[in-house]
Amino acid sequence: xxxxxxxIPAMFLFAGCSMNDLSIGSNNTCNTEPSWVLNPPVxxxxxxxxxxxPENFKGEQAQRKSAVGKAIDEIASQLKTTVNSQTIIxxxxxxxxxxxxxxxxxFQTVNGQKVSARIIKSCKNPKTGYLYILMEAKK
Length: 139
Description:
19% of the residues lie in helices and 37% in strands. It has helices at 8-11, 35-38, 60-77; strands at residues 5-6, 46-53, 82-94, 97-109, 118-124, 131-138. Strand 3 and strand 4 form a beta hairpin. The strands form 2 sheets. It has a 3-stranded antiparallel beta sheet with strand order 1-4-3. Strands 2-6-5 form a 3-stranded antiparallel beta sheet. The radius of gyration is 18 Å and the shape is flat. It is built from 3 helices and 6 strands; from the N terminus they run E-H-H-E-H-E-E-E-E.
């Protein structure tokens, strides 16, 4: 039986990419937002996803995971996906003081298909700290 429900961040975090595909350093810097962020490539045989992540207090690995996850989410959304989201908001007051918390979970179904993508471009802006990743998945 095919696995139909996939938790995108957990399953596809490193789909098709390795440490060599994205070594953040002086060779992969960009002083402005890359042109492919607003104008991604167009190809009949591939789907592209862009991931952008700010600096993460947990370091570069966590920042990269975030950017890769966002790019794969974008690719999956183009593959006839169904998105199911659940958000829980809790509010409470005690002695005239209030607090609010929110928890959100998102699941995506991709017709039982595995999304396999690879990083084709990446760079980090040293001024803003933002990491940009362009990923490609074959159709």
